[in-house]
Design goal:
The protein has about 400 residues and is an all-alpha fold. It has twelve helices and no strands. The longest helix is centred in the C-terminal third of the chain and has 56 residues. Keywords: Cell membrane, Coiled coil, Ion channel, Ion transport, Membrane, Metal-binding, Potassium, Potassium channel, Potassium transport, Transmembrane, Transmembrane helix, Transport, Voltage-gated channel.
């Protein structure tokens, strides 16, 4: 049934994610591990030279470095930079919290701050996720409106639609856009282009101001916009910038727009992944069970077969997959069909079965009336007779 299909989809997705993680771990380990080993060897050599030059023990020096690491976590740096917990720094921090970026370069050190962060983040993250979802809905509505407007403009040029026709307002306008919802792939393309444009523009701003390379700026944009937030590169952390107020405003706008686009893109990609999983399950089910089902159907006489499945259209962003309700005729092969479909697809089979049962009960073939001969039905008694009469009436009406 439906529950089994959902469980199969869940298990397949879990297996694919685990395989994806294993492949990613293998690739990153192969790329980054040699560099890490080289850096560790260089550090050990520098540490040995420093202890020998200043006549220090390795244990004392390591203890001092651990203390510096603790100070670094609290926001202390070697260079004299602005406080991280002034109002602007705190505002930047709460922005990384509610957007779920979490760079990690600023974290609360007090017990009160940690407790407040739990409740603050619980409400803030939920509200921001809701904002991102509403942003995606508004984007879809705008795309639908543009598509509808372009279609009406083409009709006016062809003379099919009058130029003085006015669009409805309020609820009628919203209902008129329901049929213009774009496909998942169209929305995904638009979001990809928008994310790329925002990332390129933001990188052009970060490169000269932060002193990063353009590739590092693009890398930061993806890490920040996707809310991964490693914290190796963080914007707006220097003590002073040229046009500092304008730069911080631009940084805030780019991060907000980028997170909205990338988060919406992730939602759309998840729909495409869901479709792909359904397609894989369908192929596996067809290969494994098609022969068995065909043999089972051949072995049974007068078997009730489901109606024809409708052809799939371009899937809209709202439906995300073809609906599998019991009322629209698109059912899984293992689901029950309604009595309406039963009667519609098996009239002749039921009539023949009623005739055979009637002849067996009476011991001889019954004489059919002219009406029954005309319609191909025979008489009978009991529930099958009632059903047979109803089928005969339906046949006569047609």
């Amino acid at each position: 049934g439906r529950l089994n299909a959902d469980n199969a989809r869940f298990l397949l997705l879990a297996v694919l994610i685990v395989l994806y993680m294993l492949c990613g771990a293998a690739v990153f380990s192969a790329i980054e591990l040699p560099t890490e080993r080289e850096a560790k060897e260089r550090w050990e050599e520098r540490l040995e030279n420093f202890t020998r030059r200043h006549n220090l023990s390795r244990a004392e020096l390591r203890h001092f470095l651990r203390e510096y690491e603790e100070a670094s976590v609290a926001g202390i740096r070697v260079d004299d930079i602005r406080p991280r917990w002034d109002f602007t720094g705190a505002f930047y921090f709460v922005g990384t919290v509610v957007s779920t970026i979490g760079f990690g370069m600023t974290t609360p050190a007090t017990v009160g701050g940690k407790i407040f962060l739990i409740f603050y983040g619980l409400i803030g993250c939920a509200g921001t996720i809701l904002f991102f979802n509403l942003f995606l809905e508004r984007l879809i509505t705008v795309i639908a409106y543009v598509m509808k407007s372009c279609h009406e403009r083409q009709l006016r040029r062809k003379g099919v639609l009058p130029h003085n026709s006015r669009r409805g307002s309020g609820t009628s306008e919203a209902d008129s856009l329901a049929g213009w919802k774009p496909s998942v792939y169209y929305v995904m393309l638009i979001l990809c282009v928008a994310s790329l444009i925002i990332s390129c523009c933001a990188s052009a701003m970060y490169t000269p101001i932060e002193g990063w390379s353009y590739f590092d700026s693009l890398y930061f944009c993806f890490v920040a916009f996707s809310t991964i937030g490693f914290g190796d590169l963080v914007s707006s952390q220097n003590i002073k910038y040229e046009s500092q107020g304008l730069y911080r405003f631009g940084n805030f706008v780019f991060i907000l727009m980028g997170v909205c686009c990338i988060y919406s893109l992730f939602n759309v990609i998840s729909i495409v992944i869901k479709q792909s999983i359904n397609w894989i399950l369908k192929k596996l089910d067809c290969r494994c069970c098609h022969k068995c089902q065909r043999k089972l159907f051949r072995s049974r006489r007068n078997v009730v077969m489901p109606g024809n499945v409708r052809s799939r259209r371009n899937i809209s962003i709202e439906t995300d997959i073809v609906n599998e309700s019991d009322t629209d005729g698109r059912r899984l092969s293992g689901e029950m069909i309604s009595m309406k479909d039963f009667l519609a697809s098996n009239k002749v089979s039921l009539a023949i079965m009623q005739k055979q049962l009637s002849e067996t009960a009476n011991g001889y073939p019954r004489q059919m009336s002219s009406n029954s001969k005309q319609n191909g039905f025979s008489g009978g008694v009991g529930a099958l007779a009632i059903m047979n009469n109803r089928l005969a009436e339906t046949s006569v009406d047609r």
